[in-house]
Amino acid sequence: MPSLTPKKILIVEDEADIAHLVKLYLEKDGFRPTIAKTGVEGLKLVKADRPDMVILDLMLPEMDGLEICKKIRTSLDTALLPIMMLTAKAEESDTIIGLELGADDYVTKPFSPKVLVARVKALFRRLERTDDPKQTSYAYGPLLLDLSRHEVLLDGAEIPLTAKEFGLLEQLLRHPGRVLTRDVLLNTVWGYDYYGTTRTVDVHIRRLKLKILLLEDAIISVKSLGYKLKDLNASD
User: Fold this and answer.
1) For 141, left (φ over 0), alpha (ψ -120 to 50), or beta?
2) What contacts 71, CB < 8 A, 6 or more positions away?
3) Does 3 map to a domain?
4) CATH of the domain at 109
5) pTM for the full model?
6) Is there a single domain that holds both residue 149 and residue 121?
7) How do residues 33-52 score in pLDDT, each as one tens digit?
8) 2-15: per-residue pLDDT in tens?
9) For the residues of 159-176, what is the DSSP string, one character each?
10) CA-to-CA distance for 176 and 141, rounded, in angstroms?
11) What's the number of domains the chain is made of?
12) H helix runs in 65-220, sequence order
């Protein structure tokens, strides 16, 4: 069921006309938008204001959108914060890098404000589907993870996993298409009192891929950050 509390959206955009137009249309749809004019200001507001989503321009003064995206994803407090990128057509290669760093979606300038708002709402819907805390099972093609039985089935046959492998797979299935940093995975699966290195995550991901060949291409390594699971519903 959708939340009755208006969602806070931070718009990080240095072009005043675009920022205020986006803000106006978001307000019309019941969101609570705020504006940051520089990358540094945007990052400060992410930490101070705890928005529900960031609409992030790529080209910004002081700190560009790619750097902000990376910093958001590498902080435990904001690692899963939804990010919508605003890009120009000439920045196609940067758009790809942004998606690899963990942006959830992007809109190319010039854009229709109505289309942007529709994409924002669609992204919230998609994330709400995958973040249901009451969900007890997750399917990924022929793969099924059952939390209540603590078992993983592939085409109906059980795949024996260690507790940590099971925990890693659960996190990836809970957040398809989203970059999960090694630190986030360590803290979620191993716990805050774990003092090992992030290489531990790499070793367990390798074991997971060896046990479930379906995941060999499905789990994508994101350079210098962590891992993400290809989203089978990304075309929504």
Assistant:
1) left
2) 43
3) no
4) 3.40.50.2300
5) 0.77
6) no
7) 999 999 999 999 999 999 99
8) 456 899 999 999 99
9) ----HHHHHHHHHHHHST
10) 12
11) 2
12) 65-74, 92-101, 113-130, 163-174, 182-185, 199-211, 215-218
